[in-house]
Structure formats: structure tokens, C-alpha cells
């Protein structure tokens, strides 16, 4: 495993912290959003829970596929068009 240059370490820690906080906000907001969705659509609590779970699974599959192919969004190899619409599926 290679270590990151000292100049990028603060950026990596900042991104890690922001990612952790955003996932925490997502998990805490989901039950609140589920209640609003249930009232608006007539879905049950199970259906909104399954929709949230399915969205996370689809997101995980796409994240793994993007990671396996390398980080094309940052390297500028022209694959951003293929990857950018992926979150719209979730």
C-alpha cells in the first residue's frame, strides 16, 4: 500500500469526515422522509424501507463497478458520461 503525499492528507481526511457525516445524515433523515412519502403515495413502512434498501444496494453496485474500472471521473479519460447518470437509477 502506498502512502499519500503529505500535501493531500488534509484533503483526504476532510473528504472522509464529510462522507461519514453525509451518510449519517442520510440514515437519520430516511425515517422522516419515509413518513412524508407514505402520506404522499400511500405506501407502507415496509415499502419505503425496501425502496431505501434497494437504492443503497444499487448505489453499492455502481460504486464497485466504478472503482474496479479506476477513477475515470478524476483522471479525465472521457468516461464521465457513462458514470454520471448512474445515481439517477437509484
Pattern of helices and strands = HHHHH
Helix content: over 70%
Largest sheet: none
Q: How many strand elements?
A: 0
| Net shape | elongated
Q: Structurally, how many domains make up the residues?
A: 1
Q: If you average the pLDDT, what whole number results? A: 76
Number of alpha- plus pi-helical segments = 5
Unreliable stretches: none
Strand content: under 5%
- Calculate Rg over CA atoms: 17 Å
**Termini gap:** 32 Å
Look at the helices and sheets and give the structural class: mainly alpha
Organism: Deinococcus soli
Protein name: MFS transporter
Transmembrane segments: 48-66
Keywords: Membrane, Transmembrane, Transmembrane helix
Identify the notable features of this structure and list them briefly.
90 residues; mainly alpha; 5 helices; elongated
Word description of this protein:
This protein is mostly helical and 90 residues long. The protein has one domain. The chain has helices at residues 9-41, 45-68, 72-75, 80-83, 86-89. Helix 1 packs antiparallel against helix 2 (45-68). It is elongated. The mean pLDDT is 76.
Helices and strands in order, then pairings?
Blueprint (H helix, E strand, L loop, with lengths): L8 H33 L3 H24 L3 H4 L4 H4 L2 H4 L1
Helix pairs in contact: 1-2
Question: Quick recap of the structure?
Answer:
By secondary structure, the chain is mainly alpha-helical. It has helices at about 10-40, 45-70, 70-75, 80-85, 85-90.
Amino acid at each position: 500500500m502506498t502512502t499519500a503525499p503529505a500535501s493531500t492528507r488534509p484533503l483526504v481526511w476532510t473528504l472522509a469526515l464529510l462522507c461519514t457525516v453525509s451518510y449519517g445524515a442520510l440514515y437519520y433523515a430516511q425515517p422522516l422522509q419515509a413518513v412524508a412519502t407514505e402520506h404522499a403515495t400511500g405506501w407502507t413502512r415496509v415499502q419505503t424501507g425496501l425502496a431505501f434498501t434497494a437504492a443503497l444496494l444499487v448505489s453499492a453496485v455502481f460504486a464497485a463497478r466504478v472503482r474496479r474500472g479506476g477513477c475515470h471521473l478524476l483522471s479525465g479519460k472521457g468516461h464521465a458520461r457513462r458514470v454520471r447518470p448512474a445515481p439517477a437509477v437509484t
